[in-house]
Specification:
Blueprint: H1 8-11, E1 15-16, E2 28-29, H2 30-50, H3 62-76, H4 85-97
Helix pairs in contact: 2-3
Length: 123
Amino acid sequence: MRLRTDDDIYRARLVYLGPPGYTLPIQLPYAQYGLFVILVPFYMFVHWLFTLGNQHPDLFPAWEIALAMVSTSLVFRYVDPDRPARMVIRTALTDWRHTREPRVEQREPRVTARRVRIREELT
């Protein structure tokens, strides 16, 4: 159970609104810009690895930008004042490496008595 704090600092968002006089149409926290800037070169490197370096880097990496936008929005869907972005990423990586339950249901062996013996005396 989470209690709503009465501190205004937790409700304040550090948001970049754009250059003075030119407000951007979207309001994103600084942390989202930072994660996006980190993910675009990462996805460009992964793309370069998959093509084995045979392809030159694109002038406009559209797929990498799209993947970075989706990844950033997925991470920040779970971010709140009590759960920072680095903990969300660490949890996702830990859960990804953890072993999972088998997809195919495994039946437990049944233990049944085929014959019941009743003894007169206990030894």
